[in-house]
């Protein structure tokens, strides 16, 4: 760089100062641009990271929604099975009561059958007794008839 002396020096001095100021400003601007470029790069990396996190969370959300649907289906099936079980329980109680009534009725019918068989046996015994009596009376009659015929 040349140093200018003389009357022109006073004239160029403001221009030189202005150029030096512009150089300093340009250097500061370059530094600022570099700083902002680094900041942009950092923000872009953060943005990419956030986008990946969003994608990951969306996938996880889809998986959880699928799991919720699956669990809701299982809950529905379990509730239906519980309702069916309760219905079977009620039906089982009804059938158990009916079985108990039928067993009681069978016991009563068995008792009546035993009583009827006993009465039938007694009637058979009486019939046998009366048949023997009738036979004896017929024999007596025959003897009487024979006696009267012989007379």
Structural Rg: 62 Å
Number of helices: 1
Give a short account of the largest sheet.
none
What percent strand?
A: under 5%
End-to-end Cα distance, whole Å, is 197 Å
Low-confidence stretches: none
Q: How much helix is in the residues?
A: over 70%
Q: How many individual β-strands? A: 0
What shape does the CA trace take?
rod-shaped
Quote the average pLDDT: 91
Give me the strand/helix succession.
H
Derived structural class:
mainly alpha
Task: Give structural notes.
The chain has about 150 residues and is mostly helical. Helices cover about 95% and strands about 0% of the residues. The chain is built from 1 helix and no strands. The chain has one helix spanning about 5-150. It starts with 6 loop residues before the first helix and ends with a helix. The mean pLDDT is about 90. Keywords: Coiled coil. Pfam families: Tropomyosin. InterPro entries: Tropomyosin (IPR000533).
